[in-house]
Structures are given as structure tokens and as C-alpha cells.
Amino acid sequence: MKEKILEFLKQQEGFISGQRICDELGVSRTAVWKYMNSLKKEGYEIESVTRKGYRLLQSPDLLTREAVLSCIKKGEIPGELCCFESIDSTNEEAKRRGEAGAPDGSIYVADNQTNGKGRRGRTWLSPSGEDIFFTILLRPDLPLNSVSMLTLVAASAVAEAVDKVTGQECQIKWPNDIVLNRKKVCGILTEMNMEIDSIAYVVVGVGINVNRMEFREDIAETATSLKKESGHSIERAELLSEILSAFFRDYKLFLEKQDLSPFLESYNQKLVNVGREVKIIKKGEEIIRTAIGINDRGELIVQDAEGNTEHIFSGEVSVRGIYGYV
Fold first, then answer.
1. Over residues 43-50, mean pLDDT
2. Is residue 184 a known part of a binding site?
């Protein structure tokens, strides 16, 4: 109920009468008054004027369930939405919920992670009140070799939403990073749990540097935030809602096509690897190639000095000019 009231307030440019809220939601004026006071205690600045009603003046930057749902259209989240002040890892929570039978399309959001992680067991720093950490639990009907493409679907959705909300033009570093001005602002970690010969569930975890301004010394040269690059604070609930809207739209298309053909052109336009020299480390071997783009299976197409092409499905890929690789 509180999220519906918050949604009404956000949709209005001026005042909305208490009676209209009562009529729309079927609650009493006393209930509306209590919900308004609850929102004020959370930090929402709400003006109330006799015979005019209520007006939202300012919203705090929260990642509560009410804040997220107030920004997103009804029905766009197919599963459950759970928001936590602090948790060990949203990926780990999604796996626990997945084992317990949580539905496809469920989302787990944290304001802080105490044990966040990136690819290859790396630590993902997760301070409170500044960034976005969330995981989507999926139960896709896909062949096992198609699961890795979900990382690219997620990257495309994040890039689209970041551009829309910030006015910046970010890029994608294949397969799982979002880059602004040659520095990393987002990482994506996809993990799969299998049954005997099929997918039990997949978790797609996303960590975005949103409003933080300070980074520890060992990553200060390679990481940045949306606030640092845009020059202004970003409302996290709004950005998250845009990402989820784009992701579930594209996820539906992906399941229909079973490949990345609907997004191939837009993804390649965003791909920072294109036309650049890349260093690929796979099974201990290091090779240098020039990236051309991705195919509809999500593989990175690269070319050697003689013009021969090959498709890279996995491995560490560094891009010249990005993250300090020179």
C-alpha cells in the first residue's frame, strides 16, 4: 500500500488530494495519514496543505521495496522483489531462494553487501547508501550452452538504462563490464545451478558504482562512478527500475529467439572492444588479436594480423586503452 501512495505522489506535478488517494486505494483518510507519516520518517519530504492534499517535494535515495516499486510499471517484475539493508551477497541470497523454489524473475536488492564478489572469485566492494547491488533469479528454458548469453542481455539493458538516466554514453566491455570514459562502472556475474541434464536456475548479479566518489588505491585508476562522470547524483531506485524494465523486455525476446539476434546491432554499437587490439588469456595462453564484434551466440569475433578470424567464447579479455592496458 505504501508503494502505491508513493507512486501517486511521484506521478503528480502538484498536489494530490487525500480523498482521491482514499478512493483509488479503498482506504481511510486515517490510513493515508499514517502512510504519509511513515514515508516522512524514511526521509521523504512531503508537503500537506488543507483542501489541497499532499505533494512530494523531495525523495531520499533509498533502495527500499516501496522506492523501487513506485518507479516501475505494474507487472514488469514477474517474480518477487526483496530489498535488504545489508546482506552477504545478492547472488548468494538468490541461490538460497532458488533452492527454496522462488519464481522466475525474482529480484534481490541490497543497499550493502558484506561479501560481494565478482568474476573469478574477486571481491566486489559494496558500501552502503551509494551504489546498486542486485541479482535476478531466472528459470529459463534454454540449452546449457546458451546461458552465458544472459550476461550480454543484462549488459545491454544496463547500458541502455545508464544512458537514459544519466545522459552519458557508456560502452560495454565484452562480456560483462559497463565502461564510462575508459573506466569500469558496472560488473555482471552470472552463475548457473544444474539438475541432472537441465538448468535448475540461473542468477544474474549486477553491481553498479552509482554515487560513490572515493575508491581504494588499487582500483582508483580503473574504476569510476556514474556520479563522478556525470557530475550529479543519481536516484538509485529510478536507475534500477529502468534496468529491470529493459532487461525483462529483452529477456522475453531472447527466450523467443534463443540467441542475441534482436540486440546484435545495438550491442555492437556499444562494444568498446570493436576495432581495438585485445589481449586474450585462455587456459594460461596469451594471444593478441583485433576485435570485430560479437555474433548472435555472444561470441567475440577477433582477427589476427593475417586477417583470419576466430570466435572467443570465454577467457580473460583486456582491451588496449581500457583499465590501464597500454
1. 88
2. yes
Residue-averaged pLDDT of the chain? 90
| 202 Cβ contact partners less than 8 Å away, ≥ 6 residues apart | 137, 138, 139, 140, 147, 150, 190, 191, 192, 193
What pLDDT digit, counting tens, does each position of 256-309 carry? Answer: 999 999 999 999 999 998 988 998 887 778 889 999 999 999 999 999 999 999
Neighbours of 322 (CB within 10 A): 21
Residue 128 located in a structural domain:
yes
Is 44 found in the same domain as 116?
A: no
Q: Report the C-alpha gap between 179 and 182 in whole angstroms.
A: 6
Q: Is 90 annotated as a binding residue?
A: yes
Measure CA 237 to chain center. 11
- DSSP, collapsed to helix, strand or coil, labels residue 189 as strand
Q: How many domains does the chain have?
A: 3
Tell me whether residue 211 is exposed, middle or buried, using C-beta atoms within 10 angstroms of its C-beta: 0 to 12, 13 to 18, 19 or more.
Answer: buried
Q: How far apart are CA 8 and CA 1, in angstroms?
A: 11
Q: Is residue 326, in this structure, part of any structural domain at all?
A: no
Contacts of 293 (CB under 8 A, 6+ apart): 268, 271, 273, 274, 300, 301
Q: Are 222 and 184 in contact (CB under 8 A)?
A: yes
pTM of the model: 0.86
To the question of whether residue 106 is assigned a binding role by annotation, the answer is no
Output DSSP code: residue 74: T
Q: Is 58 labelled as part of a ligand binding site?
A: no
- 156-201 pLDDT tens trace: 999 999 999 999 999 999 988 999 999 999 999 999 999 888 899 9
Residue 120: per-residue pLDDT: 54
Residue 91, annotated ligand binder?
yes
Q: Report residue 121's pLDDT band, with 50, 70 and 90 as the boundaries.
A: low
Domain range spanning residue 7?
2-58
Which residues are 281's β-sheet partners?
Answer: 286, 316
Cα–Cα distance for residue pair 261/274, rounded to 1 Å: 18
